[in-house]
Design brief:
With 246 residues, the protein is of the alpha/beta class. 37% of the residues lie in helices and 16% in strands. The chain has an eight-stranded mixed beta sheet, sandwiched between helices. Helix 2 links the parallel strand 3 and strand 4. The structure holds zinc ion. Zinc ion binds next to loops. InterPro entries: GlcNAc_PI_deacetylase-related, LmbE-like_dom_sf.
Length: 246
């Protein structure tokens, strides 16, 4: 069977902002790519829309929030990311809409990234398993908020104290999308990606998946994607160009 080839992602950029719904969303595949980029001297910032406080069955949200934020900060540190923001929106019940776009547009205006990374926000992961509602709400709000950020008449109340519109985002990249057409070689940074997922210890333990091995899990996807890029390991992204005329 012919395998569908993936295009390499461009790497001629300096700043990326990652906006995802939950702590751990980036660690299920994208973190090894982040490690590669920070290793190239690029600046990558994380923004978590929620703190994943509804993610552990045996742990009440107030306690869970603290645990998961700490795990995310450590997970980020492992792949060379020193700045992690939490928007403290409600985990599990995020709604796509203007309020969420407003929150994210503000983050984009403050960080002025070239690339914005989010998670897969298609309806499924490629099979029959449905994607989670927060992921879909977040990804849709991210692509819209990137446009909002560049328009001085949208969320104009944010433009005080020197904050300017930012229309410099070249593209939004959605990690792990089932219709991804691009990928990045993560062979050299694969281990950092594994360590970054293992940093979510309380979350992984809370899932209660018996004998689940983060390395084995990540390797399966990375090898399949790598094959399509012509390398050992890779991470896949769907590219949404944000300029006009592309
Ligand atoms: Zn998630």
């Amino acid at each position: 069977m012919e395998i569908e080839k993936l295009e390499p992602l461009p790497e001629d950029w300096d700043r990326a902002l990652c906006v995802v719904a939950h702590p751990d969303d980036l660690e299920f595949g994208a973190a090894a790519a982040i490690a590669r980029w920070t290793g190239q001297g690029k600046t990558v910032t994380y923004c978590m829309v929620t703190s994943g406080e509804a993610g552990i069955d045996g742990l009440a949200p107030d306690e869970c929030r603290t645990v998961r934020e700490a795990e995310q900060v450590e997970s980020a540190r492992i792949v060379g990311v020193s700045e992690v923001e939490f928007l403290h929106q409600p985990d599990g019940i995020l709604e796509y809409g203007v309020p969420l776009r407003r929150e994210i547009a503000h983050v984009v205006r403050r960080h002025r990234p070239d690339i914005v990374i989010t998670g897969n926000f298609r309806d499924t992961w490629g099979g029959v398993n449905l994607n989670q509602a927060d992921h879909i709400a977040t990804g849709r709000a991210v692509v819209d908020a990137v446009r909002d950020a560049g328009n001085r008449w949208v969320f104009a109340e944010q433009l005080t104290d020197g904050l300017e519109p930012w229309g410099g985002v070249r593209a939004v990249w959605a990690a792990g999308s089932p219709v991804a057409g691009h990928a990045v070689d993560t062979t050299d940074t694969f281990d950092a990606g594994v360590a970054s997922l293992e940093a979510h210890r309380a979350y992984i333990d809370g899932l209660g998946w018996e004998n689940w091995d983060p390395r084995e899990f990540l390797e399966g996807f990375a090898r399949q994607t790598g094959q399509r890029l012509g390398v050992a390991f890779a991470a896949a992204f769907e590219v949404f160009p944000m300029g006009w005329g592309e």
